[in-house]
Design brief:
The structure holds two protein chains of two kinds. By secondary structure, chain A is mostly helical. Chain A is built from five helices and two strands, in the order βαααααβ. A two-stranded antiparallel sheet of chain A has the order 1-2. Helix content of chain B is about 85%, strand content about 0%. In chain B, helix 1 runs antiparallel to helix 2, helix 1 packs antiparallel against helix 5 and helix 4 runs antiparallel to helix 5. The chains are: A mainly alpha, B mainly alpha. Chains A and B meet through helix 3 of A and helix 4 of B.
Chain lengths: ~70, ~140
């Protein structure tokens, strides 16, 4: 297995907290595929800074509220 | 499963089967001795036609399963996967080409050089699709 990026995220948690937004809806909102949202949630992919901001803005929170550094 | 991953799963057997067909046809026509025989244009053309038709059929089948995904451009993760797979498959082609050229400096057989580089091209394409699947599965 590839080494996972040391970046944690709360995307799934935020999706569920915001009225069960589907992965497909979030993907459409930020301009990626549903598989990419799944990969982000599973920690297999760290999104670009632009996508990170798009995700944060979709949930109305700051980037640091969505993404964190492992161990922090 | 992402559209391009499905396509990679289709293209690997297409490339392997058409490659085997090419080898089979070539061996049936050519008598490989100490010196490699010249490539046979009808077989080469047949190979190209076969692979194009098989690729189109495979692409249509995959696209039919999810037309909207088929039309979508690669997103940032997919672009990285495609770039990385293309990067490493380039090494496969490069290694095959260098090996073929080294061999050419030894025996001066241009026909063998062609066959080895052509085989390297097919192998690098197979490697590219295999790497795409690997990166889709384990992450980039």
């Amino acid at each position: 297995m590839a080494k996972r990026p040391p970046i944690t995220n709360r995307v799934r948690e935020l999706r569920e907290a915001h009225g069960q937004i589907s992965q497909a809806a979030l993907a459409k909102a930020i301009g990626v595929t549903r598989q990419t949202v799944i990969a982000i949630e599973q920690g297999r992919y760290s999104p670009s800074l632009e996508s990170a901001f798009r995700i944060a803005r979709r949930f109305g929170v700051g980037v640091e509220d969505v993404f964190g550094w492992e161990g922090d | 499963m992402a559209h391009r991953e499905k396509l990679a799963w289709v293209m690997i057997p297409v490339l392997i089967l058409t490659g085997l067909w090419y080898i089979d046809r070539t061996q049936a026509v050519l008598d490989f001795g100490a010196e490699a025989s010249a490539p046979v244009p009808p077989i080469l053309i047949g190979y190209v036609i076969l692979i194009v038709l098989a690729s189109i059929a495979g692409s249509v089948l995959v696209a039919a399963s999810a037309p909207s995904e088929a039309e979508a451009p690669a997103d940032e993760r997919e672009a990285r996967i495609l770039d990385r797979a293309g990067h490493w498959s380039g090494y496969v082609l490069g290694a095959a080409a260098i090996a073929a050229m080294i061999r050419f400096t030894v025996d001066g057989d241009g026909n063998r050089l062609f066959h080895l580089v052509f085989a390297g091209l097919i192998l690098s394409q197979i490697a590219e699709y295999a790497l795409q699947i690997l990166f889709y599965r384990r992450g980039v």
